[in-house]
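S1.2 Input.
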Amino acid sequence: MSEATKYLVENINKTFEIYNAISKMETEVLAKFDKNIRESFSSWVNGEWISPEEENLHEDYCINIIRKEWSYQNEKKDTKSYIWTYLQLDGDDPIWKFFGLPDVEGENSVCIHLWLSDEFKQLPNYQKLIEEFDQKNQTLLTGNGFVKKGGKVNRTYEMEVLFSNKAILNGLQNDNWDEVEENLIQAWKIFDQIEWDFIKKLIKKRQDKPNK
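S1.3 Output.
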């Protein structure tokens, strides 16, 4: 038995206390930041954007902020979108990554994503549409720090973000998340410039069809 395992077994009550305290802290931090984003994102961008309730930071480690015109609700009232733009905390114990601390593998992956989704792939000639999306938007995105990923049938752009521990603490203590939001605001101002007019008619045509 390793020394670490032996300690955990011998101090099981203390171990649970530590675990529960970390879990409570994670929920509090991410729930408050999630709430603040939902209350403020409309000031980041032009037009009408939404943040669907189906996913949130404190339960799913993800928050979506998408242009309303990209989205629709299916018969189960679940939000679907042709283009997803979202913040996601990846991997195990993502709360430490949120604080800018690497995990045990030395990775830090809190990323902002743009994803041409499964709904996008249901549009006619979607592979050509992916190519056209790249032609119109790759320079904008990669020129502002996003990395292009995927092949001919998949496309995402993602950018790693770091948050200041001091800024997060200020958010918790003073309910002032302005500094933590800075990177997100800049990213969504870029997303606001996305050229997507070329798929507007195709989206409308598909949405007008019954049993989509």
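S1.4 Remarks. The chain has a mean pLDDT of 86.
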